[in-house]
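Milestone 3.1: sequence recovery, worked example.
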């Protein structure tokens, strides 16, 4: 980044790491900061359909024209580094492009989501003003370690300075590691349930109404969030605390909180793709993510019967994911998505038959066939309120969104 003039230091940074809820929390933080009147740059990953989604200015993906123009400015420097030190990875290059875009705009504040882990992540060149840790769980063990403590140590690698650290509720092994990392840096730790909290929530049409206690005694009642599930409500509380920490502990005006959350979205997170029958898509791809999905389904949707379309990547804990889905799915259609890393459908079917009766497990050769089969199953008895849930991977959701015209 030195050769580019350190664009990552061109504005204050909120740096977000964690296993689940990273992207949703990042989006909420960005939306709140924008509602305060600041110009924002937001970097998230992965994208669903186009790389532009990763790099947003004022909440909107950067245009093709702007992205190409910035790339042409950055490309000579990338080639210099490639020649001198070996080729940059794709993620390193796109991260550099994001920082260059934000510096060029310029923005008032950046909200940066890590790609994988924290310590060695390409985004960890920033000097954060706030470090945010979302729920830590088991995922990417081949890269981050086999235990929650190991994974937490990687995530806590973004705690690199004596700046506020805001964390979601964590398991004890993860929290111990995060707290130790904060203490080592002399960083104040703000913990969900202790320093800020979700103190109430009511299910509403199209989302939920929240009551949030922020930092320093701030209180934000009657906040509508157009996302489903307790996990998203808890993400919202983390977002409020993160922004208040970013503002030096100053309480947000509750009207700003309401404005910021009113239009927040998180594509592929319990997203409605069509009606008649209702088709939902969720990018849950690990057991903790599936557990949050199952909880949200139960409280937000009144299906009498639910058909699942499932395609997962081979490196995931597929057995545990299917077990978690067992109580809510009555029929499953297993298939493959467009990733070369996808687990073969027959392998998923073998595991699924340990959870559901053979008659409830169907195999489809590809995503179009799977969605068609699931909709046919849902429409088989119109007297029963049946929905379709597409899940298992970000790629699975991206494929479904494209097929159903949501791209």
């Amino acid at each position: 980044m030195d050769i580019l003039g350190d664009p990552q230091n061109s504005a204050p940074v909120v740096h977000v790491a964690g296993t689940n809820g990273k992207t949703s929390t990042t989006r909420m933080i960005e939306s709140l900061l924008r509602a305060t009147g600041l110009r924002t740059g937001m970097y998230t990953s992965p994208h669903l359909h186009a790389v532009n989604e990763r790099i947003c200015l004022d909440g909107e993906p950067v245009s093709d024209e702007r992205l190409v123009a910035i790339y042409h400015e950055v490309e000579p420097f990338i080639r210099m580094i490639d020649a001198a030190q070996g080729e940059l990875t794709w993620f390193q290059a796109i991260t550099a492009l994001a920082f260059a875009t934000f510096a060029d705009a310029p923005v008032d504040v950046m909200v940066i989501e890590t790609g994988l882990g924290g310590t060695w992540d390409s985004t960890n060149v920033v000097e954060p003003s706030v470090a945010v840790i979302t729920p830590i769980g088991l995922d990417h063990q081949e890269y981050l370690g086999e235990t929650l403590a190991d994974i937490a140590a990687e995530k806590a690698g973004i705690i690199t300075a004596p700046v506020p650290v805001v964390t979601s509720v964590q398991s004890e092994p993860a929290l111990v590691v995060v707290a130790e990392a904060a203490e080592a840096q002399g960083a104040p730790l703000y913990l969900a349930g202790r320093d800020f909290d979700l103190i109430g929530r009511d299910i509403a049409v199209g989302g939920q109404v929240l009551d949030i206690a922020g930092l320093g005694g701030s209180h934000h009642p009657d906040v509508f969030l157009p996302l489903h599930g307790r996990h998203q409500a808890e993400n919202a509380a983390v977002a409020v605390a993160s922004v208040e920490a970013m503002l030096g502990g100053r309480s947000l005006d509750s009207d700003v909180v309401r404005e910021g959350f009113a239009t927040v979205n998180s594509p592929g997170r319990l997203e409605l793709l069509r009606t008649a029958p209702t088709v939902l898509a969720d990018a849950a791809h690990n057991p903790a993510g599936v557990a949050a999905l199952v909880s949200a389904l139960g409280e937000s949707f009144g299906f009498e019967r639910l058909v699942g379309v499932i395609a997962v990547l081979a490196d995931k804990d597929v057995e545990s994911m299917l077990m978690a889905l067992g109580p809510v799915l009555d029929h499953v259609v297993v298939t493959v998505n467009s990733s070369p890393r996808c687990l073969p459908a027959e392998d998923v079917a073998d595991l699924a038959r340990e959870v559901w009766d053979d008659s409830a497990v169907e195999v489809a050769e590809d995503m179009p066939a799977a969605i068609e089969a699931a909709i046919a199953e849902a429409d088989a008895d119109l007297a029963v309120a049946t929905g379709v849930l597409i899940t298992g991977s970000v790629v699975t959701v991206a494929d479904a969104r494209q097929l159903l015209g949501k791209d």
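The mean pLDDT is 95. The chain has two domains: 2-262, 271-403.
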